[in-house]
Amino acid sequence: MNHASQNTIAENIKFIRNRIADIEKKYSRQPGSVQLLAVSKTRPIEDIHAAFAENQLHFGENYLQDALSKIEDNQNQSIEWHFIGPIQSNKTRQIAQNFSWVHTIDRLKIAQRLSEQRDPEQKPLNVCIQVNTSGENSKSGISIEETLTLAKQISELPNIQLRGLMTIPASIDDFEQQRLPFRLLRELKDELQSHSIELDTLSMGMSNDMEAAIAEGSTIVRIGTAIFGQRNKND
Prior knowledge:
This protein is α/β, with parallel strands linked by helices. It has one domain: TIM Barrel (Alpha-Beta Barrel), CATH 3.20.20. 41% of the residues lie in helices and 16% in strands. It has nine helices and eight strands. Helix 1 crosses helix 2 and helix 4 crosses helix 5. The radius of gyration is 17 Å and the shape is globular. The termini are close together.
């Protein structure tokens, strides 16, 4: 398995937390306003244990079956699991029952199923709408123009709490170009709030564009490679 050692994972987490703090300061963000989400998809359980030992409590998973075995292994710990992959209708029940957050809602049907299948005894499921900020057909997410309508509909549903917006823009190296889709998402959040939709979350930024995302208002950065190392090609 091509993954970092436990010591390396601990060092990487410390480095990234310091980097986040430096970027917050650079762009006059509140200290501690950006949460580190460790993207643990396809990683072995030992990697999660190593990150947890560094007090990393938020983990992101893309693949339901892979995630469920890890959740089972860690059920007595104070980990919050975030589902950050595409959602198929037949997977919503287990997602609703096992996760604290879902970042990738892009249609009402999925939100309705999560709402119906979340146990009312549990805390409401925190959800984000995934927005396609680049307009590419290959990218998941709802269009910017359709987001307000969907946000209003989701806000009415029981057992789930609309927290914010998420995006995965095209990969670009230029820093100023990286900022543009994140700026669009932040402006969209502001627009939704002007329609009395209360939001506090922007899930945006990964290992290669974290600074641009934080500069534009990200509150959750989704970091995998910079914590756990490169994944195998077949992962």
